[in-house]
Amino acid sequence: MIMYALAAVLFGVGLYGLLVKRHLLKKVLGLLILEHAVNLFLVEVGYIEGGTPPIRIEGADAAAFVSNAVDPVPQALVLTSIVIGLGLAMLMVALTLRIYERYGSLDANRMSELKG
Amino acid sequence: MSDQQGMSLIVRVVTRWLFGLILVFGLAVALFGHLTPGGGFAGGTIVACAFVLAILAFGGARGPGATFARWASSLDATGALAFLALAILGYTAGAFLHQWAGKGEAFTLGSTPSIVLLNLAILLKVGAGLFAGFIAVALFEQTAESGKGADA
Amino acid sequence: MLDLVPLFVLIPLGAAFACLLVKKRAPAVAPWLSLVSVVALLGLAIAGVVQGTSGAAIAGGWSLETHLGTSFLPGIVLVFDGLSAMFLLLVAVVSTAVLLFGLRYMDTYDGRPLYYALLSLLIAGMNGAVLAGDLFNLYVFIEIASIASYALVAFGTGGREIEAAFKYLMLGAVASSSILLGIAVLYASTGLLNMADLGAAIAAGQVSEATLLAVATLFLAGLGLKAAMMPFHAWLPDAHPSAPAPISAMLSGLLIKTLGIYALVRVLYVVIGMDGVLGGSLQTLLLVLGCLSMVGGVLLALGQTDLKRLLAYSSISQMGFVLVALGTNTWLGVAAGIYHALNHALFKSALFLSAGSLERLTGTRDITEMGGIARVAPATTLGTVGASLSIAGVPPFNGFWSKLLILIALFSAGLPVVGAIAAATAVLTLVTFVKVQHKALFGALPERLKDIKDVPASMSLPVVALALLCLLGGLLWPLGLQDIVGDAAASVRTDAKTNLAPEQYRTMVHSEGRQP
User: Fold this and answer.
1) Domain A2-49+59-110: top CATH class
2) A20-65 pLDDT, tens digit each
3) A103 to chain C: which residues are within 8 Å by CB?
4) Helices C209-226 and C159-190 meet at what angle, rounded to 10?
5) Domain range for B52
């Protein structure tokens, strides 16, 4: 349960950074934290107390493997979602750099359209 | 940190030793991705890190780095197209993404040749893509800074 | 046909990467690559609609497996049914028009191969989202299309464009996280991702009502933002006008429908279930949000003088029509909603393209500075008038039929208040577009615009063609088109008291899950 609480706290931190902070880089970081909070939640969904990694080793007992291994599906999902997050992060950083180039500032208050 | 100078002697020497090792490690992670943790994405990330390390240690994001990045963005597209081609080859065995190259003995490199090939295509795509992205952001930052310098 | 279904995603994806590959050496090839790919898609989509097949294509040819007593499908499942076919055809038609228009329009922009690559990626993402058979693939394709659209909004690289893209990206990414969280919660309580299997599990009561409520809220917020529903619309009036005209047409015409409306229909009707424990509250929510979007969008549109901003606000309003139609939970309502979404894609992309032409001709987007364009640009005017009549709901254009059907569906579902609001909105829409016609196309030609010539044929032709399709869609409605749309609607909501479609969807997906 405490693990889920961690994901929830991270989600809250990310949302706070995204909504409250005026600095664009802090918004970007907030969004990344929020994304990873969701990823963390997904990994925790597949977790089994005292489980083994979901990798079959030659000669291992199949039945024991199935009952002990943690669920690999969420891990595959998280990997995909991390890749998407990476693409998103790169785009965000590029946009932030462009904004800095144009305004010489990363303060959202100084932008014309980003208010609110 | 000035672009062309790179970092201290210690970092450069260590990088020279490690560069090849990191590449081999990345390749191994990708090659055995169907048997152990890893795969094309993880391997590609490691390979990209080797190049990023080299650029950081020796400098030159603008000169040789930019040239490499141009190749890398072509390689990136090639990797993606190779993945698509391999996936379409699955039609020869009946369905999209089917394991067209047959199956070998379990727990060996040859157990599923088609997945190994797919992993290598992803390695190319991710390795080249990440490196190109790194160079793009690095160059971008420098032009932004030099642009500001010109204003002042 | 079913074996070829992955091609709907593969062709544009291949075109995207091929465009990147030729970026430096042969940039002139890129437009033709994407044009060939969309024409191929158009052919495939027409074949799909004509054949009328439906079923699932399973990537890798994996077989149905039994797991904990229930049979489930492993791997990637692409589901092709009437509704998917309809949207695939729509994506192909609008993309073809947009690409043709962009051939000349994009001349003034740098990095054109990148534009074609991103556009192809956008098409691949939308096609994938329409075909996805499991929730996670839906999420991945939504993300592919969204990321391509963020980059395309920033394509002009001006200050406004970048700011709009940043805002759009921030909100879009939060929406995506909300969708992923919803998927994670569903997976945690059922261990399933396939939409057909999930629908069965939820219908069997495997998910508690509280969990289901959380999931529905997360999906509604996430997909609602992608569909630009009223409380989540803030990004659209900035993002859509900022993009180059062909991209605005793609975003307003296709993206908000494939990622928003289509995904919402699938998730609400097939997975969560409109007849289930949450049915009543979901219906109310859709109706309230729909009314809000309808009225709010059209009122904001009325006050605009920036042509593209006006069109963007009117998109929100028209999406409201679709949402209230979906909120009826009847076959007629769903059919009317889907038909209106299709029509909106045609006329709104035509209007955005013609807005691009007008901007190119007059050098401004402010309609008060235009006027009398009809005299100097007859072809563009023809297309614009056709599309405007359609969006205003003038018979015999397609917009008239779909709005009429939505009103009939609302009144016959016992929702006269919503119906009255929809009728009032339709009148206000008419007023808005009469104003646009009056100010921009007719009236006195300003002195400075005396010598302009109409845009080249490659820019006016797509607009006229889309306007013709609007007319054709209206004329053919009583003659057969209604059956096709009705069938498409029946793949998510059957014409029965209880909805049989989710069950049919399950049977269809599972019947393909045998070893080939």
Assistant:
1) mainly alpha
2) 888 888 999 999 999 999 999 998 888 877 778 777 777 777 777 7
3) 159
4) 160
5) 9-151
